[in-house]
Each structure stands twice: as C-alpha cells, then as structure tokens.
Design a protein that fits this description.
The structure is a single chain. With 243 residues, this protein is α/β, with parallel strands linked by helices. The chain folds into two domains: 64 residues, Hypothetical PUA domain-like, domain 1 (Ribosomal Protein L25, Chain P, Beta Barrel), CATH 2.40.240; 167 residues, SPOUT methyltransferase, trefoil knot domain (Alpha/beta knot), CATH 3.40.1280.10. Helices cover 30% and strands 24% of the residues. It contains seven helices and twelve strands. Strands 6, 7, 8, 9, 10, 11 and 12 form a seven-stranded parallel β-sheet that branches. The radius of gyration is 20 Å and the shape is elongated. It binds S-adenosylmethionine (SAM).
Amino acid sequence: LAIAMAQISNRHIDLTAEQQHYLGRVLRLRQGDRFIVIDGQGHWWLAQLQVMLPAPSPHAEILEAISVQNELPIEVKLWVSLPKTGFDDLVRYCTELGVSEIVPVISQRTVLKPSLQKVERWRRIIREAVEQSERQIIPTLVDPISFVNAIADSPDLRLTTTSQPYICVARGDLPHLYDCMSRSQSTCDSITLATGPEGGWTSAEVEMAIASGFQAVSLGQRILRAVTAPVVALSYVSAIWET
Ligand code: SAM
C-alpha cells in the first residue's frame, strides 16, 4: 500500500494540494482506494480516499489504526560536519538507516555556509525518506550549529551511563566503532556519532570532544568521504542492534 504523511484530526484528513498530487497523480489512487497514513510521531493508520480532484474538498477518512515497529531500538544522534556537496543524499540515506536526530555542525574546516532554504529542503527530504523507508518517526534536523556550541549545549553527554558519544576520526590506530558499540550494546540506549568535513576535524576539536566525553573511534583502514562516513557508521548501528 502507498504511504503518505498527514496531520490527523477526528479520523478526517484534509488533503493539501501536494498530497492530492502525490496520491492522485504520482500513485494514481482513485476514490475508495486505501493507503497508509503516518503522522511521523510513531502512528500509522489505514485510510481511504473519499473524494479526489476535481471535487471541491478532497479528503480521506481513517479506517483503523495499524501497529508497526520499524524503528531502531536505540536513539541515534548524528552530528555531521556539513560537507561541501552531497548533504541531500547524506540526509536521505541516514533517514533510511534509522537516524533519530541530525545536527548539521559547522566545524573549523567546514566550507559550506548553510541557508534557511537549504535547511527547509533537508527537512523535506527527510519527510520523503520517512515515507519511502516506511518509518514511524520523522528524525529531527536541528538548525546548523558550531561544533563548539553543540558541545557546550550538551552538558549531559558524559553524565549518563546509558548514552555514549563517539567521534569518528580517520586514524587507523583507534578502536573500531563496531567493537566499541558491540561492547556497550546491552547497556546503551542512546548514541551520538560525530563525523567531520572533507578536511577532517582539527586536533583541537578532537581533544575538546574527548574532554567532553566522546570516545574517538575508527571506521576502518580506508579514508571514507565525508558523506560516506555517517552512512557507514549508521549501518554498523543497524548491524549491532538489529541482528
Ligand atoms: N584527511 C582527513 C582527516 O585526516 O581527517 C579526512 C577526512 S574524511 C574525508 C571526513 C570525515 O569522515 C572524517 O573527519 C571522519 O569523521 C570520517 N572518516 C572518514 N574515514 C574514516 C575512518 N576510516 N575512520 C573514522 N572516521 C573516518
């Protein structure tokens, strides 16, 4: 069944022009056809199209709630230093892989200057990827923040025993993220993964992160692109917590 995201009120769904286009023209649904509605906050419903264009008030009705659980069993926050290009794909792939929150970070070697329009586009891409990957929860994409402020705003990083922050550093002598996460699998319910820009983290940034509770980890012997590293790190999370 096709999946669409909507605001639900009283079993009635008013369809926006964008949703009408998606359901009617892209998915070719007709009056009486059923589809799945998600609200992005953990709920799914089976819904039925009641009236479609060119009728005056296109809408759908909720038929029944559906119980689904496709989310990762652990919260994953991704602090990703904005790459020069490729952030659209990065956001899409990390949403498919189950990320809970994306924090676009401006580190010392970040080149891209994020605009409000870009942030809105990334949030739209996330919603599309939630529909495509059949997730229940829409990951949060917070406004871009400097790495220094992200650390200052997270005083709880080293206070809880059930959450662990990792900073990925392209150095082969560090412990591997997979091994570190495997060891904490049974005790950890939240992790933060920080990945750097094309030029990498500065050593001052790595030291500051470690002083704030981050563990420096490797993703293997090869240097991954800034847009590849978060995807690889998230696939390890899935491998550990979902298999
Ligand atoms: N020459 C840069 C350096 O020395 O850091 C390479 C940066 S790499 C293109 C971009 C980011 O991806 C890094 O800052 C790191 O967060 C992550 N990364 C790439 N390969 C990695 C690896 N093998 N282990 C850990 N992190 C890696």
